[in-house]
Amino acid sequence: MAFYITTSISYVNGRPHLGHAYEAIASDIVARHHRQRGEDVFFLTGTDEHGEPVADSARANGMEPRAWADLNAAKFQAMLPTLSVEPDFFIRTTDPEHARRVQAVLQTVHDNGYVYKGTYAGWYCPRCADFKVENEILEGNRCPIHEIPLTREHEENYFFALSAFQERLETFFSEHPGFIAPARARNEAEAFLAGGLQDVSLSRAKLNWGITVPWDPGHVFYVWFDALLNYYTAPGFARPGVDLTAALWPADVHMIGKDILKFHTIFWPALLMAAGLEPPRGVYVHGHLAAADGRRMSKSFGNGIDPAEAVDRFGSPDPLRFYLMRDVRYGTDGPVSLDALTARYESELANDLGNLASRTLAMIVRYRDGQVPPAPLDPELVDAFTGLPDTVAAAIDAIDLSGGLEAIWQRVRRLNRYVEERRPWELAREPTATGQLDSVLASLHEGVRALAVLLAPYIPTSAHTLLNALGRPESGYGAAAFGAGTDGPPVRVATIAPLFPKAPAA
Ligand code: MSP
């Protein structure tokens, strides 16, 4: 079964920041989980390189748009492996293959009668690349997102007949209640639709940094249509000589932030309908992270978290990946800071999980010479783990990434309590308790193993180190059940350096 997931594509008007890292990490977690389930995953990410946001920032930096885009796109691409984010393809909208396909789809939209020429007069935000309608505008004609003054635009361009899709979108929304999640985002999209749709600009005559309109080369496509189409064009050319479009379309889920909801939940399905294509199956709208002082994160404010710094500090992306899914409930807004990351690292990764792992491995080495005893599993733990893989899978299917992690963490805590209750070091001193100690050690080994399998999408490097040390490297979802690791020949464990060593002081 194919599973096609995308991030939004980032504007290359600067270097990547935590918001970009956040979306990439969350999408990577979902992708890895589905790979564990044996699905044919295609995970797409990339960069959005045309339009004013990039042209303006290039000019401000004294560079040509293309050179500026190349420079920054390389930074986005380079960030991904440092975060253990492993996409199946990285699309750049300046790719000629993308441009060719955008022209073909929009030509179809034109030929189907949904494009007309008109004059746009209204307010425009060059940072959002968004034409704002009156009720979206802040006092003083400012952008509601960037708070910068909007420009007054008056130009002749092509329009997309969005209003023709009012009823079709209403029907689509009601027939596909799962199309937009979480509920808050669905309500927002429904409210926008209920407000009545207006036609939108499809092209710009003033700008030349974009994809040429095939029926009128004096125009380029408005950047949002070029950008949204990346999800559809990429499968066509991601693998040379193979067209994956039929296998992958419609996409299963687009992961996006709340500021670009209108484009993905309204414009995008309407555009696809206009081209005779199927809308995606789902759009998941995550929240925005802010600095602990409530302000926007910014290098110049010196607040928030810089992803590269957070990875360097811990020598691995796992702490950042974990923290981002744990501290702010995924799907809501929240504050982040390096202090809060360090606190979570110490209390949960180092203490809860790291100690559990080292104690389990060390006790098997000390009391059983590294050999995992082939003993029956403790029914109490069998109970505590029953249904866990299904619970986690259901949470991730609902993109409740924090909920999935919490379900896992309850068992991490349960195993720590188990060690305290059973006191294996006392059992080891009693000659009559050999069988009991065998069962406690086998149960702990199995519990830690099952948890490491479930944690692998969240903290891939640490989870795989742990699975190897446990002597059972299998990480497919079948291995996530408590008890699944007891089949097969007996295994030996290895002791390892602490998975989460003490972090250097800030
Ligand atoms: N290029 C458009 C998207 C086109 S998709 C067809 C764009 N790019 S962006 O670089 O400005 O934003 C990329 C993503 O990062 C968006 O989903 C946005 O919501 C997300 N984030 C930007 N700042 C963020 C935070 N502070 N926190 C979480 N996500 C953030 O929009």
What is the H level of CATH, i.e. the homologous superfamily of the domain at 338-486?
Answer: Isoleucyl-tRNA Synthetase, Domain 1
Fraction in beta strands: 5-15%
- Ligands (ions, cofactors included): 5'-O-[(L-methionyl)-sulphamoyl]adenosine
The low-confidence runs, each spanning 5 or more residues with pLDDT under 50, are none
Number of strands: 15
CATH level-two architecture of the domain at 338-486: Orthogonal Bundle
Give the CA-CA distance, first to last residue: 46 Å
Shape: elongated
Q: Class by helix and strand content?
A: alpha/beta
Largest sheet: 7 strands, parallel
Mean pLDDT metric? 95
Helix content: 40-55%
| SS field, number of helical segments | 19
Q: What is the CATH topology of the domain at 338-486?
A: Isoleucyl-tRNA Synthetase, Domain 1
CATH hierarchy class name of the domain at 338-486: Mainly Alpha
Rg calc? 26 Å
